[in-house]
Amino acid sequence: MKLAEALVLRADASRRVEQLRSRIGGSARYQEGEAPAEDAGALLAEVGAVLGELEGLIRRINRTNAATTLDGGGTLTDALARRDILKVHHGLVSGAADAAAGEGRHGYRQLRSELKMLPALPVADLRTQADRLARELREVDTLIQRTNWAVDLLD
User: Fold this and answer.
1) Of 32, 60, 96, 133, which shows the fewest CB atoms inside 10 Å?
2) Which value, in Å, is the radius of gyration of the alpha carbons in the chain?
């Protein structure tokens, strides 16, 4: 099985756990004289089995990520960490540019006597930096996706 397939199975198992959580919550109590919508005990047993499968997938995915080296050095785990940091950095720089540009705020004066709002940061430079970070993020993400479909999942 390819790593990408295991990631899809992991996402499916996670969704299944959340669905079962909701169903358990809805069936954990019922009105006297009525029957519960579902057997909460059976649902708990089912979620236990799904969690066991999920744990196995996560372990194998993590082992594979740590053991897979990429072109240019580093592991897949390193690339995942880099992607996460690039997402945060891009969001911060874009947010700073938006705030400095006054987006989402009323930055226009209605009267000349009102105070004028000025940007404290260079908006154009921040937009250029955000574009560079977005390009780097796309490149790292493409490398990760390509690797996910090329690497076999470890046992």
Assistant:
1) 32
2) 24
